[in-house]
Amino acid sequence: MKSQQTIQRPSGAFIASSWAAMLVGAAVYLIGLWNAQMQLNEKGYYFVILMYGLFSAISLQKSVRDKLEDIPVTGLYFILCWLSLVLAIGLLAVGLWNATLADSEKGFYAMAFLLSLFGAIAVQKNVRDQQVALKQDPLTQPLQP
């Protein structure tokens, strides 16, 4: 096992900005989708891509962190995490490339999607850092008899 690293608890500002990035990115994407002049099946496609992207980004971040902390992660799962994230981004790119949207709308969806992915990764990192920092804090440990 690797030597124990000290993980510093993330600042309140970073935690807040991470949540804001994820929520603003996803909310703006979804509001744009709600107001879009698309068929319902197209809206469903873009909604599922957002959910798939968020899940795959969080799963990949967790897998990377697990490997760094010597928590077993199978190679197959690790590869599937990377493949899922690349696939989600690729499916969004293909969908936007073929969409009958203005270039500004395509850019809007791409940037909101990427902002929400970044935010989700940062939120997952913060949650993990807070858990590790809590375990390392001697004030939170139970008293030994």
UniProtKB/TrEMBL annotation:
Segments crossing the lipid bilayer: 12-32, 44-64, 76-96, 108-127
Keywords: Membrane, Transmembrane, Transmembrane helix
Domain YiaAB two helix: 14-66, 77-129
Record's keyword annotation contains Transmembrane: yes
Source organism, top-level taxon: Bacteria
Official protein name in the record: YiaA/YiaB family protein
Native species: Jeongeupia naejangsanensis
Organism classification: Bacteria, Pseudomonadati, Pseudomonadota, Betaproteobacteria, Neisseriales
